[in-house]
Design goal:
- With 154 residues, the protein is an alpha+beta fold.
- It has one domain.
- The chain is built from 4 helices and 4 strands, in the order ααββααββ.
- It has a 4-stranded antiparallel sheet with strand order 3-2-1-4, with no helix packed on it.
- A hairpin with a 4-residue loop joins β1 and β2.
- α1 crosses α2.
- The radius of gyration is 17 Å and the shape is globular.
C-alpha cells in the first residue's frame, strides 16, 4: 500500500524547477528530497481489511479499497504535512496546486484512498464491486527503491 507517492524523483525535481521558474535547480533539489525521505518516521505494521474492488487512475486500474486503522490515516496526513513543509523550504508557492498539478506526483484528488492496486480494469468504466471480506496484514512502512535514492549533501 502506498502511503505517499512522490513518483520518479528526477521527474519531481523537473516539476519543482518548472514551478519555481528555475529557482529550485534539480541538482540541488534531489539531495534535499532524498534526505527528507530517508528521515521519515517508520509506521509500524498494521492490519486492514477489504470488501470492495474499486476503479483507480481514472478507471484504468482496479484496486482493493482497504479499511485501515485511524493511526494509518494520521500517519498519511503527517506525510502530506511534511511534504508541504519540504516544498515550502524548496521555495514553492501555492503548494496544494503544485501537488495536484505535478505530473510526477500524479495526484488526481486531495483525498487519500487506502488501496492496493490489483490489475487492469476490464473496461474503462468498471463500477465498484463488493467482494467477500479479505483480511490484510501490512509490515512496517518503508521507502520503495530506497537504494536508488541520490546521496544527500553532507
Amino acid at each position: 500500500m502506498t502511503l505517499l507517492h512522490v513518483g520518479i524523483l528526477d521527474e519531481l525535481a523537473v516539476d519543482i524547477a518548472a514551478w519555481t521558474n528555475g529557482r529550485a535547480e534539480p541538482g540541488k533539489v534531489l539531495p534535499e528530497i532524498s534526505s527528507w525521505l530517508t528521515e521519515l518516521p517508520v509506521l509500524q505494521g498494521f492490519l486492514g481489511k477489504s470488501d470492495k474492488l474499486v476503479p483507480l487512475g481514472g478507471g484504468r486500474l482496479m484496486g482493493l479499497e482497504v479499511d485501515v486503522p485511524q493511526e494509518v490515516h494520521d500517519y498519511q496526513a503527517l506525510l502530506v504535512q511534511g511534504l508541504h513543509v519540504l516544498l515550502d523550504e524548496l521555495g514553492l508557492d501555492n503548494i496544494d496546486d503544485f501537488i495536484l498539478g505535478s505530473p510526477a506526483l500524479g495526484y488526481r484528488s486531495p483525498r487519500w484512498l487506502p488501496h492496493i492496486a490489483v490489475g487492469k480494469a476490464k473496461s474503462r468504466h468498471e463500477p465498484p464491486t463488493e467482494i467477500a471480506p479479505v483480511a490484510l496484514e501490512f509490515g512496517d512502512s518503508r521507502i520503495r527503491h530506497r537504494e536508488s535514492l541520490p546521496a544527500a549533501d553532507s
